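Q: I have 426 residues here and want to know how they pack in 3D. Can you give me a structure?
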Amino acid sequence: MNTPHRRPVGRRAALITGLAGGLLATAAGRVRAATDARATVPATVLPALPPMAQLHAGGPTGLLGVARDGGLWSIPPQQGTPRRIAEGLDPATPLASGHGRVAARTAQGGLWVLDVASGRAGHQPEAALAPHAGLLVLPLAVLGVAAAGHRLLRLEPAADGRWQVVARSQEALLPDARPLQADLDGRGDGGHIVVLAGPDAQRYRHGVLGDAVEATRVLWLERHGLSVLRALTLPAPHVFEDIAPRPVALPQPGGATGLLTVRAGPDGGQLALLRADPAQPGQLQLAGLGEPVGGFHRWLAPTTDGRHIAAVHTPHIGGVLHSDRLDGGRLARRRLLDGVSTHHIGSRETDLAVWLQGQLLLPSQDGRMLRRLNPDQDWAEHPALALPGRVVQAVALPDGAAWVGLLEDGAVLLARWPTVPPGNQR
């Protein structure tokens, strides 16, 4: 095991300023100003860590990081010393966790799985997983994307600790697809697997999400055998300019889960809300479309807490935050504020926003200010937090009381807000 690299943090820690002295200026009439206690929020650069490449909320201490050298670190967000628990991982492929396990892609493309309770790790060095694609941990399996052919794989553990492929999808996915689990038909069985598929490199050559390959299909796959349960195919010239849809509650009697994503075409990107209609088995439908951003190769970055829908329009050039709501067959939008960004050109980190205690936290356009809005207070803006560097990734800790940001130089910054009881968030 390599000795952890330690770097001085005193100078950086001294740059942290706490909360801004007053409310940020907002466009007149767009966001209602709210009175808010101006108590300082403790913000700390976590010490004794090498430069990080990615963060993940989960694992033994609630926070994991993969260093640029491929080491996996368990990071105590309160007190304690960070601990290097593995090495040789791929820093560019996101971690996954759940059901007592942590899964990662190794630098050689293998699968590595840690059992958190026992501390033992299992391997499948010959898994040949695609770089950049996501993993998904299920109760009895791990899902990943094959590098050859980009099929979805289901791997399960054998008695000797190795993980074996037991199922493979028939259709090709996006090379960097991020599988997720969603209960689209409301059966309450945990749901099945949503992936973006139908890769196409010719329809819409934009390339702001890491490559010029875009999806033309959304698939809902049965989680065991990976057969297609439902699908939606976009006709030319449109694509899904996204890496993974986001589950969101649909406003209808009985409750239902839809999928929020981005459809892009000649007029740029637009929000798309998908649903599963029980009367149309085998299909997914467009439940609502937002207005296009306007302009070829103009994109928008969606974000949701599963209840509210928002998007930053043109996050690379100006960055205007809008809220959206389903109104019949369209997503009606409301302009909120300017000068924010939740995506950097070329990055596969498509959402730098974090939803924490019912509030939306998102970086300013230059990534050096964390702005904070409350949708349950008519999107009132609260005091912002000045940052000592540009944010390139952000997560919320499982306890819901802390925002953790990865800065451009690999430093990890933690800001903790007082816990707000659910009934007092308004």
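Q: Anything worth noting?
A: Residues 119 and 343 are 35 Å apart (CA to CA). The first helix runs from residue 10 to 15.
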